[in-house]
Design goal:
alpha+beta; six-stranded antiparallel beta sheet; two-stranded antiparallel ribbon; 12 strands; about 45% helix
């Protein structure tokens, strides 16, 4: 089946044409009763897609992978990956399709990609389907992460399929349509390297340079410059996660993008009480991807990227390793600089406060929060009123008066600005108990709680009357939060 998109939008099949060895032409499975659950109309407009057309029958067929836009070649992408440290040479889109690429209003090439669109040659025994709850989770959390100013894939829409998905219990099925700078990952490069095809490895790297890091093409060693650009992007990304308490949950190499965007919102969650050891994912038994381990996990993934790219760095392997290590060793400093700069802003401090001072002060506050089991989001938001002289909210969260007094004295000496702090510290994040409440209701057919929560997290820095419950952590006795990947 084929249908042309609205005339303002032209699709292309660049990935399928340039890397055919990593693209299996495919189509989404037939959907008995497609029904739009949620659509990001602003994102649709950015992509040149008419929201009213997307809501119609032709648009819905595009969003579930049954309609092939003119100029597109929908494919299941091949990639490899280390999953919880174990290498799998052939993963790929087991329940997803890259529909094609389109150019957004800012002239950027963007992927349109589906999740839950049915079995593919990479399904490895899975059903290729997705349920309403996990797909709405990705829509909700990716919207929140985008609103927080963190690079991310974005969800365009979630469409209920009318089919039943069998998990522990039968669940209503859904397909998620998302956009991304691309879906190239560390695992994409690993797949190319594992084939032993040197030309394919070079073409994947060149494709990544052209899509994401074009300045690398002019460097003396373009592929080493590509690696350096990915290291820098990922260091910045994970620093941003850490500053807002985002826990990705499944930081495998196939979930580490070359663009530096957050991808795959499976067992993700935001911290309530600040604790670096926090794990939400039901499958992360050893805490490999605990909140506090995320910088180390990302650096480990980047080391695997370096291994895959080694033949492109130098003909001599020893020299290639030396060059790779030199770049990889810079990850810590890049991460530290990004974290300290972000922390300085969250503390409401001017840019002339040196990063070392700001970083130490922030680290000491985080330690106070850990010792108190204090709510991360609420504590940093309370810095705004505290900068104006009202410390009451912060003192409720950090009851150790002597320790807090000492910290406040050091902070005030640096002249914090309440407005700066409030622009950097959200009032609202997707609180875990509210996310589950909304998803449970949506799965049962009531989208009201989901729509309200989506509206709240879409404007995270603006405090609004009547939304007090959305700024509160889970009630006492709620028990530990557990997330699931949805497959």
């Amino acid at each position: 089946m084929s249908v042309a998109p609205p005339p303002t939008t032209a699709f292309s099949d660049r990935f399928a044409r340039e890397l055919p060895e990593m693209a299996v032409p495919w189509q989404g499975t037939e959907v008995p009763d497609p029904r739009l659950l949620v659509l990001d109309e602003d994102l649709a407009a950015e992509l040149g897609l008419d929201p009213s057309w997307l809501r119609g029958p032709e648009g819905l067929q595009l969003l579930v992978g049954r309609a092939v836009p003119e100029g597109a070649t929908p494919v299941a992408q091949a990639y490899a990956g280390h999953q919880f440290g174990s290498f799998v040479p052939r993963l790929g889109d087991g329940r997803a399709l890259l529909v094609g690429e389109l150019t957004d209003a800012r002239g950027r090439l963007r992927d349109l990609h589906l999740k839950g669109s049915g079995r593919t040659p990479f399904s490895r025994g899975g059903d290729g389907l997705a349920a309403v709850g996990p797909m709405l989770r990705e829509h909700l959390v990716s919207r929140a992460v985008h609103a927080l100013g963190i690079p991310t894939t974005r969800s365009l829409a979630v469409v209920a399929t009318g089919a039943t998905v069998q998990r522990e219990v039968p669940l209503p099925g859904a397909v998620l349509a998302r956009t991304a700078a691309s879906h190239l990952r560390v695992g994409s490069v690993q797949y190319a390297r594992a084939t032993g095809d040197a030309d394919l490895l070079r073409r994947v790297a060149d494709h990544a340079i052209a899509r994401h890091h074009p300045a690398a093409a002019d460097a003396e060693h373009p592929h080493l410059a590509l690696f350096e650009a990915v290291v820098a992007a990922q260091a910045e990304l994970v620093a941003r996660w850490m500053l807002v308490g985002f826990v990705h949950g499944v930081l495998n190499t196939d979930n580490t993008t070359l663009s530096g965007e957050t991808i795959d919102y499976g067992p993700c969650a935001f911290l309530d009480a600040y604790d670096p050891a926090t794990v939400y994912s039901s499958i992360d038994h050893g805490g490999r991807y605990a909140y506090g381990n995320q910088p180390v996990a990302v650096q480990w993934n980047l080391a695997r990227l370096a291994e895959a790219l080694l033949p492109l760095f130098a003909d001599d392997e020893e020299e290639a390793v030396r060059l790779a290590v030199g770049v990889l060793d810079g990850f810590g400093a890049r991460y530290g600089t990004a974290w300290s700069a972000g922390a300085r802003t969250k503390l409401g401090l001017r840019e002339d406060v040196d990063l070392a001072t700001a970083g130490t002060l922030a680290a000491d506050l985080f330690e106070l929060l850990r010792a108190a089991g204090a709510d991360l989001t609420g504590s940093f938001r309370a810095l705004g009123p505290a900068a104006r002289g009202d410390e009451s909210a912060l003192r409720l969260l950090v009851p150790d008066a002597a320790a807090l007094d000492g910290w406040l004295e050091r902070w005030r000496a640096l002249g914090p600005d309440a407005a700066v702090a409030e622009r950097a510290n959200p009032v609202y994040v997707p609180r875990n108990h509210l996310v589950e409440e909304a998803l449970d209701a949506a799965t049962a057919g009531d989208l009201g709680p989901f729509e309200r929560l989506l509206d709240v997290v879409s404007s995270p820095f603006t405090e609004r009357p009547g939304l007090e419950r959305y700024a509160q952590p889970a009630p006492a006795g709620a028990g530990p939060h557990i997330t699931f990947c949805g497959t």
